[in-house]
Amino acid sequence: MNDDLLHIGRVKSIDGRRATVVLSDSGAACGGCAAAFMCRKSEKEDTITVEVSGTMPEVGDRVEVRIGGNAEWAAILYCLVCPLAVLLAVTVAVSLFAGAVAGCVSGLVAVGVYFYTAYFFRTTINKKHRIYLIKMH
């Protein structure tokens, strides 16, 4: 588990097999990640909702949230590399046939469509990365 990202937090609420955790480390594990700005929400408190497969924690329990599967590299790929490739490819392709303004507008629209699609398929993308919830004593 050396490649895992680690966050510390407290369980805020439980809904079925899902636990919402308020992160208390303010993203300390994300300090070296180039895509951290894409993960951080504009909320007052950073929260993450985790599907729990083992023993359910209780509200108020202090827990570790571990995200495995090279999540840092996947975040960089999905949030930086792919949108840049889409922007460049669409802008250049459309600019060759319809002019620079149409190319720029098309590139920006294509990036918007990319992020909308990524948001729509976020559950599928998230399933590729293991998220562990470990109760701390």
In short:
The chain is of the alpha+beta class. The chain is built from four helices and five strands; from the N terminus they run E-E-H-E-E-H-H-H-E. Strands 3-2-1-4-5 form a five-stranded antiparallel beta sheet, with no helix packed on it.
Question: Could you explain how this protein is built, in words?
Answer:
The chain is α+β, with helices and mostly antiparallel strands and 137 residues long. The protein has four helices and five strands, in the order E-E-H-E-E-H-H-H-E. It has helices spanning 36-39, 71-98, 100-120, 122-126; strands spanning 5-15, 18-23, 47-51, 62-67, 131-135. The chain has a five-stranded antiparallel beta sheet, with no helix packed on it. Strand 1 (5-15) and strand 2 form a beta hairpin. The longest helix is centred in the middle third of the chain and has 28 residues, at 71-98.
